[in-house]
Structure formats: structure tokens, C-alpha cells
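Data's thin. Show one?
=====
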Amino acid sequence: MISILMSCYKSNLKYLKEQIDSILNQTETDFELLIYNDGTEGLDEFLKQFYDERLFWFNWKHLGYAKA
């Protein structure tokens, strides 16, 4: 299994949708996409539109690039 980590800080949701769609539509299907919300407003609601069991997201306080 492949784990893909995406850290989101003040992300543009339009481009984020394109990124997530691209990852979920890969020919390789044995992966998980872990999204860490490091400060993007409304990300939880936005991610609910993706109905995929390989997608997980986490919310903690803003940690910055290195720790996220």
C-alpha cells in the first residue's frame, strides 16, 4: 500500500479539487490519501464531497510546514 500525505495551508479549494481528483483517478488503486488541514478554512465541508474510502483527513492546530 502507498500512503500519500497532503498538507493544506490556506489552500485554494478549486485547485485542491483538481489535485484530489487526479490522485483518486490514478491507475494504481492500492493507496491511501491522508490530508492534514494545517489552516484551510472550510476544508472539512469541502472534503465531504469526495466519497472514497481511501481518503482520510485530520485537523489539528497550525503546526507549520515542517511539522505538518
About this structure: The chain has a mean pLDDT of 86. The radius of gyration is 12 Å.
